[in-house]
Amino acid sequence: MYYLDQVHQNKDPSVVYKTSSFRYPLSKHRNGRYQIQSGEKIHVCLNSDFFLKEADAWREEAWRIMKERSDVLFLLLTKRPERVRECLPPDWEDGYENVSLSVSCESQLRTDERMPILLSLPFQHKGVMCAPLIGEIDFRDYLSDGQIEQVTCGGENYDGKRPCNYDWVKKIAEACKKNNVTFTFVETGTVFIKDGRTYHLKDKNLQKEMAFKSGISFKGKEPVYRFLDRMGLEIPKSELYVPHFREHCKRCPNQAICNGCTDCGRCEK
Ligand code: SF4
After folding, report:
1. Considering the chain, what is the average pLDDT of its residues?
2. Per-residue model confidence as pLDDT tens digits over 161-193
3. Which atom of ligand 1 approaches the CA of 255 most closely?
4. Torsion over CA of 148, 150, 151 and 154, rounded to 10 degrees?
5. Containing domain of residue 204, as a range?
6. Whose CA is closest to atom 1 on ligand 1?
7. What CATH number did the domain enclosing 233 receive?
8. Which of 116, 158, 103, 112 has its CA nearest to residue 136?
């Protein structure tokens, strides 16, 4: 994230700010319909962390937006699960049904720090992001009680690019399979070790292709999301957004976590 902000956007990545699209989930077309349709996914603060202390002043408004858009899935990812409980809104109870929390687990150390906290938090949906994966991880019994719905895994890129060993990926995949948890291997990272050989894969599309070809990703138990309209009534599945995928998406390992193709052409570059 630091590398991308600096190189591609010429931004200082250490500055935390409220983006101009903060209220985008509430924006509407002229006909009064929301721009983001019921059943769509929003990755919140994908290049930052929703639970940063510097963002405390804005979080209450963000929770209000998520509550108002109870028909949209909000995906939160954090490296700071120890801050989550104190940051929840007063009406949270067992968690809003349209909010999912994932923690980053890039090594055994971080896994053992963060997974017990994640499992103790009141969220209806939970996941794990092992990216960048920089060491072997034994998930012990963190996946066994059925709380974790999805584990996503990928190697490191850009600055630093520490190696990712395929044996580590396989070990996590096996733990997921044993517990019927969906596992997605999204990319190899720049330095990838397989069967004792080290590969240098600078091209991200090649990394994705290699991850896809490994065939290691699989679907476990399907999470059940209940999307509610403004009256609190469940929206039937037939009225929810159906993601649109193109030919090239069929071989993309990200499909499991993607909101669908917007035909912008960026994935094909
Ligand atoms: S739009 Fe298609 S190619 Fe791009 S990330 Fe999503 S599934 Fe992959």
Report:
1. 94
2. 899 999 999 999 999 999 999 999 999 999 999
3. 7
4. -160
5. 2-268
6. 261
7. 3.20.20
8. 112
